[in-house]
Design a protein that fits this description.
The protein is mostly beta strands. The protein has one domain: Porin (Beta Barrel). It has 2 helices and 28 strands. Strand 14 and strand 15 form a beta hairpin. The longest helix is centred in the first third of the chain and has 19 residues. It is globular, with a radius of gyration of 25 Å.
């Protein structure tokens, strides 16, 4: 047998093996193509998932017009064979929602710019009549009820994140209306890796503990249903809680310490100590059919959905943009350097969505989301110079610029003439308030930034589902 014949036979065998393995499975393709076009008054990100630059930061506040299809996505659903009396299903989903950055973005800023494919979800599950076991990357319990708006991942910064993590999840239904669930999964970082070792990419892996979440749900058709993403849904009440460990390494940090009586901050260098942290969150959710239906006809129906949460270090659970490190003053070392222990900022927030269907094709969504810090404490110094700052026991310093509260309001008109097509036109307003104003210039001629950032956006989206 010559070499060429051997290679041909090897190729045929390689192709035949997957065919034989897939004979017991059924595959289906799904997803959508999405055009996203918007004008905004700032240089805010496509998904509106970041804090806003201050209003008098000139380069960040001029209009922008953008068109993109990078949020298009596709998926494969695999129906597998029965195992231990359970039906088995696999799901793999990808999108292109990771824009080129740095040199690549500068080299290819036009319509042919490359967007990096991203693994969005990849899991398999086993389903018995009232039990489900899921293994793989999927949304966490905290991410089940994000609003139906034009931008992708709405309210990641305020009401509901779109957090996906590799996990093992078990859910159990009983008595027809109750469900409980628990998951263990990947422990995430809390603030872009700033407080962690460069060798620990997520900030949670070195704690050797997983993220843990639990959930309880009551769902029953009490007086009819209303639409949730176009599906008739009954009254639903949920509560969930999550916990994980984080770690801060010994390191020298630079942070901004706000000085009492001045709307400015002084830069200092201080050391952080090796510490473990415990990010946590508790969230409650209600879905209420306000004007219900008892059939598949959604015309004239209305619903109200709301989720509210409280926690510390909530970036670990998918909220983003807050920079939640707070440094509490601890003392000085033998050579006079400041020592700070790192706490996690306490925050609360939530979102509320109202939706009304004019008929089965036209409907409108109004949504509001917010996040607020609390229990931050005072900012005081008794020293006169930046090199001699001695805060009192509850004083704080921040690693970078930190958000006090953030709000967002959206109003979106939707038109879905048939199942395969959906169009939306939306207005959005967002507002960020920082703890600190920033002083620049010289002492004789200082200039100040405001602690307020605002943005307006008008957005059109078109989706083709397949």
């Amino acid at each position: 047998m010559n070499k060429r014949t051997f290679l041909i036979l090897a190729l045929v065998a390689a192709l035949a093996l997957p065919t034989a393995a897939m004979a017991a499975a059924e595959f289906s393709l799904g997803g959508y193509i999405k055009l996203d076009a918007f004008w905004d008054s700032t240089q805010e990100g496509k998904n509106m998932n970041g804090v806003l630059a201050r209003n008098n930061v000139r380069d960040a506040h001029h209009g922008r017009l953008k068109f993109t299809s990078q949020s298009s996505r596709f998926n494969f659903t695999i129906k597998g064979p029965k195992l231990w009396g359970a039906t088995t299903t696999g799901f793999i989903e990808m999108d292109f929602d990771s824009a080129e950055t740095g040199v690549a973005a500068a080299a290819a800023p036009g319509a042919s710019a490359s967007y990096t494919p991203r693994l969005r979800n990849a899991f398999f599950k086993m389903n018995w009549p009232e039990t489900e076991l899921l293994l793989g990357q999927y949304f966490s319990f905290v991410s089940a009820w994000f609003p139906e708006l034009a931008q992708d991942g709405p309210f990641q910064i305020t009401g509901t994140p779109t957090a996906r993590l590799a996990q093992i999840r078990l859910t159990q239904k009983f008595l027809g209306v109750w469900q409980v669930g628990a998951l263990v999964g990947e422990a995430n970082g809390i603030t872009n890796g700033q407080s962690y070792s460069a060798n620990d990419r997520t900030g949670g892996e070195s704690t050797e503990a997983p993220q843990v979440q639990v959930q309880g749900q009551f769902q029953q058709d009490l007086w009819g249903k209303a639409a949730w993403y176009g599906k008739p849904t009954p009254f639903t009440a949920q509560i969930m809680a999550g916990w994980q460990r984080g770690i801060t390494q010994d390191a020298t940090r630079v942070a901004g310490l706000q000085v009492t009586g001045q709307d400015a901050y002084t830069v200092f260098t201080g050391n952080t100590r090796h510490q473990y942290h415990d990010p946590w969150v508790v969230m409650g959710t209600l879905f209420i059919p306000v004007i219900p239906t008892t059939s598949a006809n959604l015309a004239g129906t209305a619903s109200l959905q709301t989720s509210w949460w409280v926690g510390q270090g909530v970036e670990a659970f998918g909220w983003i943009g807050f920079n939640s490190q707070v440094f509490r003053y601890s003392g000085r070392d033998v050579i006079g350097r400041l020592f700070y222990d790192v706490d996690l900022m306490s925050r609360y927030g939530g979102q509320v969505q109202g939706q009304y269907y004019f008929n089965n094709q036209w409907f409108m969504t109004a949504a509001y989301g917010m996040s607020k810090a609390f229990d931050v404490g005072a900012f005081e110094t008794s020293g006169q110079a930046a090199t001699d700052l001695v805060p009192n026991g509850r004083s704080n310093a921040f690693a970078g610029d930190v958000v006090n509260y953030h709000h967002e309001f959206d109003l979106c008109l939707w038109y879905r003439p048939i199942t395969a097509f959906k169009f939306g036109l939306q207005y959005a307003y967002a507002r960020t308030n920082y703890f600190q104003n920033v002083r620049s210039g010289t002492a004789a001629t200082p200039s100040w930034t405001t602690n307020l950032g605002e943005a307006h956006r008008v957005e059109f989206v078109g989706l083709f589902f397949f």
